[in-house]
């Protein structure tokens, strides 16, 4: 089911709008707060749902500090006096700007779900000298972490004149177990050239009460949290506790996952670097396989539940003969199986290169996995090394059943990829993410994560990026492009194709049902009028 049509939690505002009563009014300027007419926020109260007309426009909004602290004063944004912005045609994002989740529509499609566009606002709820910000990094390493840290610090200092920024050491547990690190533009100036995170990181250690106690005790009022879906769930819990206590603290998340498995957003930072760095491992595997008789180069790439890195690295390389990902089941023996295809490639070309994502083939290993039900500190299921397992399976098959000598070289570049500095495109991306988060927090938005949606950065409620994982859709054209590039079989039994199509059809049926019900509700509203 498309998560666009799931029920929204109380921490976000979902507003349905129709055509404006007047051509001069913004098309969703309804239920306005006192800030609307002085350049602040056009928003309804939490949980408001205004329906009417035929457009089916939905603004899935993020929380704002004035939702529970309505008397907070607003101030002019200091960016209007910042010389760096003097050449900008327009300083501030229009209060009515939103970003559409879906840009491919039919002529009779509803307007659909939108998110509030990221960027600087004309009014802010924090004065520069009152801000005390902190930054924390959680979960596994990812290229670009240091770049995001640097850009948050420099952005706060240089755009908003904020001089109190600290780093929390060692992940969530650092809030109550360690001291903070003062961060200044000078201290972070060159960290983007290094891999890892200067703040340190860890999995787990989340204790909401202790963390918020620490935030309150230290006088922190802006919290920037870098991490994956588990980390963002923790950030959502921190926001809820802060709101319950009525604290003037903005919580902003910046999604981090090298696997690119966070939904809604176009991609996550570090992904481009991972795909680029994976080329080195694939090239090495190709050289090894070409240089040996019956050579097979096997590369395992990251992708616990989603095969995006493996898919994009394969497409970029053009040297890969077979790509295996978690979303596409495969089998080893028999007609149309992996072993048959390997034998075909070796007889045809004398060598082959296989790329496999770490989460692929786990069901085939189920009998030998002893840690199947175990999880790491972040709640992720622990997988056995599918690369080592499938390497042995291939060797045994060709030695015992085909009586063929093969030379298989197995390469696992996982930790080399995670630890490298980010490339140029990711550095730019990290800058945009950091500055968008800063603008949102300064304007009083909270309980949000930031990311690109169809090329435009937007503020997204936490629950939208934690409710599911983004996965490769094997019935879409991108996977078809990969199959065309590698010339590999799909390895799918007809049942798997049927199941995938049934899931897609079910999603379409649920969406259609939602639209019909919504149309009935609108008609009822019109009758009541």
Helix-residue proportion: 25-40%
CATH topology of the largest domain: Rossmann fold
Instruction: Provide mean pLDDT, rounded.
Output: 84
For the record, what CATH class of the largest domain applies?
Answer: Alpha Beta
What series of H and E elements makes up the topology? Answer: EEEEEEEHEHEHEHEHEHEHEHEHHEEHHH
Could you tell me how far the N terminus lies from the C terminus, measured between alpha carbons in angstroms? Answer: 33 Å
Task: Return the CATH architecture of the largest domain.
Answer: 3-Layer(aba) Sandwich
Major pleated sheet = 11 strands, mixed
Q: Number of helix segments?
A: 13
Low-confidence sequence ranges = 1-12, 16-42, 44-54, 514-529
- Overall geometric form: elongated
Q: How many runs of DSSP E, i.e. beta strands?
A: 17
Q: What structural class do the secondary elements suggest?
A: alpha/beta
Q: Estimate what percentage of residues fall within beta strands.
A: 15-25%
Count of individual domains: 2
CA gyration radius, whole angstroms: 25 Å
Pfam families: PFK
Region (Disordered): 28-47
Binding site for Mg(2+): 229
Subunit structure: Homotetramer.
């Amino acid at each position: 089911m498309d998560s666009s049509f799931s029920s929204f939690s109380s921490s976000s505002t979902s507003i349905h709008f129709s055509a404006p009563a007047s051509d001069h009014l913004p098309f969703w300027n309804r239920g306005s707060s006192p800030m609307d007419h002085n350049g602040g926020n056009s928003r309804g109260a939490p949980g408001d749902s205004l329906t009417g007309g035929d457009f089916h426009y939905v603004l899935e909004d993020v929380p704002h500090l004035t939702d529970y602290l309505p008397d907070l004063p607003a101030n002019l944004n200091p960016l209007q006096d910042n010389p760096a912005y003097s050449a900008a045609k327009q300083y501030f994002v229009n209060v009515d700007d939103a970003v559409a989740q879906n840009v491919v529509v039919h002529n009779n499609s509803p307007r659909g779900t939108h998110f509030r566009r990221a960027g600087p606002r004309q009014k802010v709820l924090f004065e520069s000298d009152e801000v005390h910000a902190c930054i924390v990094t959680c979960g596994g390493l990812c290229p670009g972490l240091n770049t995001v840290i640097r850009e948050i610090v420099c952005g706060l200092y240089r755009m908003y004149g904020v001089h109190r920024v600290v780093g929390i050491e060692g992940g969530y547990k650092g809030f109550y177990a360690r001291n903070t690190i003062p961060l200044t533009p000078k201290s972070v100036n060159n960290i983007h050239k290094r891999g890892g995170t200067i703040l340190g990181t860890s999995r787990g250690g989340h204790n909401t009460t202790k963390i918020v106690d620490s935030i309150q005790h230290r006088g922190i009022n802006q919290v920037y949290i870098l991490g994956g879906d588990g980390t963002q769930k923790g950030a959502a819990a921190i926001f809820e506790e802060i709101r319950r206590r009525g604290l003037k603290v903005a919580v902003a998340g910046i999604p981090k996952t090298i696997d690119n498995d966070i939904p809604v957003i176009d991609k996550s930072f570090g992904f481009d670097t991972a795909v680029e760095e994976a080329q080195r491992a694939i090239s090495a595997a190709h050289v090894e396989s070409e240089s040996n008789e019956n050579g097979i180069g096997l590369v395992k790439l990251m992708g616990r539940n989603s095969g995006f890195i493996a898919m994009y690295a394969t497409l970029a390389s053009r040297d890969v003969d077979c790509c295996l990902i978690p979303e596409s089941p495969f089998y080893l023996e028999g007609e149309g199986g992996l072993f048959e295809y390997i034998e075909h490639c070796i007889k045809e070309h004398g060598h082959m290169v296989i790329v496999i994502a770490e989460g692929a083939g786990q069901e085939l290993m189920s009998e030998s996995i002893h840690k199947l039900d175990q999880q790491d500190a972040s709640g992720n299921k622990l997988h056995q090394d599918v690369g080592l397992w499938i390497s042995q399976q291939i060797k045994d098959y060709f030695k015992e059943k085909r009586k063929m000598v093969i030379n298989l070289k197995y390469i696992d570049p996982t930790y080399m990829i995670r630890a490298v500095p980010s490339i140029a495109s990711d550095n730019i991306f990290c800058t945009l993410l950091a500055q968008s988060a800063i603008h949102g927090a300064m304007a009083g938005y909270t309980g949000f994560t930031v990311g690109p949606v169809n090329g435009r950065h937007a503020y997204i409620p936490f629950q939208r990026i934690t409710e599911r994982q983004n996965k490769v859709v094997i019935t879409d054209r991108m996977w078809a492009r990969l199959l065309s590039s590698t010339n590999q079989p799909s390895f799918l039994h007809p049942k798997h194709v049927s199941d995938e199509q049934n899931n897609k059809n079910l999603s379409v049926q649920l969406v259609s049902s939602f639209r019909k019900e919504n149309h009935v509700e609108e008609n009822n509203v019109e009758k009541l009028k």
